[in-house]
Amino acid sequence: MRDTRESRLLLVLLIAIAFALITVDIRGGEESPVDGARQAAARVFGPVESGVASAVDPIGNAIGAVRDSGERHNRITELERENAALKARLGSDDRNRSRVRELDEMLKKAGAGQYGIKGAEVIAIGAAQGFSWTVTIDAGSNDGIGRDMTVLNGDGLVGRVTTVGPNTATVLLANDPDFTVGTRLENTGELGFATGQGDRALRVQLLNGKAKVKKGDRLVTFGSRGAKPFVPGVPIGEIIRVDPAGGDLTRTVMVRPYVGFSRLDIVGIVVQPPREDPRDMVLPPKPAPPQPTPTVTVTVTPSADAVADGTEQ
Q1: Are 194 and 183 within 8 A, CB to CB?
Q2: Single pTM value for the model
Q3: Which pairs from 49-54 meet CB under 8 Å and 24+ separation?
Q4: Distance between CA atoms of 234 and 270, rounded to whole angstroms?
Q5: 10, 18, 148, 153 - which has most CB atoms within 10 Å?
Q6: Signed CA dihedral, 147, 108, 158, 129: sign only
Q7: pLDDT digits (tens, 9 = 90+) for 266-299
């Protein structure tokens, strides 16, 4: 329609009629004279509106999805962050459980040997005072720690205290080349001296060159006068190699230590020695020997019918 004077007058007239109808409809309420016309219009234009709505709704849904995707993305990010936090907490819990097991094993060792111990944590490793295998623990003279005290953990002998400060102390590990401890062989009681060899097995010189010894035999500390630097009965390790006897006064064996010196965490310093030598009481129980697999023998007995068939032939 062109913009003319007549078209403007027609538009104003239609607007006036529309307002008049709205006024009459509002005043009439439920009995409005235009109610019939409204219903007729609904019947005519209803399907058209439904069609338009069905065409428009997917677009609206898509727009809503785009709008909500930011919220979902934020939620996913939040869940991922919570998941990472839970994993970190789980890792921490695993570490705590591991440390609880270490502490429990150490307390069992102390209980079996009747050692009075002071718990400590390894806080540093490295060379100290010329020693190549040492650790620093977070306990010192303020905690009752002194020089030449035995250090152990849930596996066995860790070393001995060499220097002490107010709140820390240095421990010389049993695998250090400058470390020597008296040993006693399980059951037979054969005596010897173990020396550290760094990351290799401990070297033990048995005083009896004719001692009967074999792989798998275990050793504990013999103990020192006054229980310093070593209390008796602390597990050292297991023999993994026996050098041939050459008629010497001593005999050499190689011992795998029970303690993993590269993964130390919680240790115990023996501040009170046992009243009596625990001897082999602190050693872990030996594993039960494997049971032989039973052999099943199957015997086939011929049936009566098979015997009869054979007789007829």
Answers
A1: yes
A2: 0.64
A3: none
A4: 11
A5: 153
A6: negative
A7: 999 999 999 999 999 999 888 777 677 766 666 6
